[in-house]
Fold these 2 entries.
Entry 1:
Amino acid sequence: MPELPEVETVRRRLAPLLEGRRFERVEISDARLTRPFESGLVARELEGECVESLDRRGKYLIVRFESGLSLLIHLRMTGSLRHAAAGSLPDDPYRRAVVRLDDKSDVAYRDVRRFGTWLILAPGELDGYLDARVGPEPLDASFRAPVLGARLTGRRVPVKAAILDQRTVAGVGNIYADEALWRARIHPLREARSLDGSELKELRRRLRQVLELGIARQGSTLRDYSLPDGEAGGMQAEFKVYGRANEPCDRCGTPIERIRVGGRGTWYCPTCQLSPHALASRGHL
Ligand SMILES: [Zn+2]
């Protein structure tokens, strides 16, 4: 599933292709994409709109139009965007929408599992919509350890589950959560409220580090994610724990273990990331 680095990579690639362009023709072939709104009506509403900017908030892509309307795109599990010069889009049975721009190039939306969404918001609706769903941006300078701490205070859920909650921190999903926790040496099952000041600082620092590395590597391509020109990302080569069950930990050689946390597959090093039980027996919790 695309997380902050993948969505940010798509944004950076598409922004110069979209900004200043007009949506000349919009075809939405999957009614699910725009539910509960009728896809034909959404398409007609988008036609003629001029793109002011392409932004991102958490895992949302935001197409802001000069009219004040915005189109909020969430790729969910398997959504991806492809840009191609006029008439050069390859055939694709999973294509759900195509936007023809006024330079005759196409932006195509592909989604195998069809969980992605396109939502039009009227002028003035965007901030409230996002603020209700998405917490602080982890790469903003204002995302300091106390900001993270305030969102974990009093929460008994596993810290992994807490940071997957988009209201705790925007854009972190299963891959980058596991990678950040390994780098911070924090066990994914630790209660969110149990982290002390130095652990919070470390978690904040490592979250930013893995997200920045993910952007530098242009995201991780496991199955569906690709860049708008069809290229793959390279972050998967940097994974320390994600998907690496039984492989030796880079730091200590202990085989990586896989458990489930909040219903999600979770990888960690049992030596570097001490369990709550092990910490308690050493008097640390
Ligand atoms: Zn280790």
Note: The chain has a mean pLDDT of 96.
Entry 2:
Amino acid sequence: MPERLFVCTPSKLGSYVDCPRRYRYSYVDRPTPPKGPPWAHNSLGASVHTALRNWFALPVDKRRPEALPSLLKGTWVREGYRDEVQERAAYRRALEWLESYVETLDPAVEPLGVERVVAVKTAVLAFNGRADRIDSRPGPDGPELAIVDYKTGRTGLDSDDARGSQALALYAYAAERVFRRPCRRVELHHLPSGTVAAHEHTPESLARQVSRAEDTARDIAAAERAVAEGGDPDTAFPTTPGPICTWCDFRKVCPAGAEAPAKEPWATVERVLTPTAADE
Ligand code: SF4
């Protein structure tokens, strides 16, 4: 019998690479173990992403900075903040980011896709993922595509981050096949700093990322098979404790997570809002 394709998204693969135990808690154990409280930085990121999606849903003549406050209010996610004072400060900061960001956009240029799902099959994977934005831009031999990913974290990003992102590479690989146009450029748009970190892939570098994703999928399938055949789930999906444990949703149920320092759900947002004081 041919082996079944491994159905995956970038976050599913990334979860296993970060920590096999976290993957198990998220995708294997049922019922899913209880998660910790929602993180304010996730709320902030989701609010900004949805506001930008809705910006592109506006008619071109309505894509003006004055539209942003109601777009952001309409998509605002309230969970995780310390209190209303912090939440209001985060809203104001997010609005500033959006105002600066849309100044860099030509409202008349329509992206090819906004929060667009692209899917592709390889010999091992049935991949699907939702790209923040897919642009069509003029190239030397006709239109070329670029994958755009919005970032709202505290720290800036550089071209190594864009080059190393497996998610961006998989989106590019899939978009090229879905739209039948070259898609080699991947970009991280960091709204807090207004910077763009970009990388131009080659067919070879995209193939390498796909091959790595396939290796991860094989490892996951082997671990799942071991459990299905009666193996110890804790051995098949080991913990990999490290700094990520502090931010892991399963810190409280994971034996290794108990060792990690706890952070309040709003800790990252606090640092985003007062970077200098927090760094002292
Ligand atoms: S707490 Fe750490 S070791 Fe445990 S699942 Fe989360 S990331 Fe993995």
Note: Residues 19, 21-22, 25, 239-241, 244-245, 248, 250-251, 254, 256-257 surround iron/sulfur cluster (CB under 6 Å).
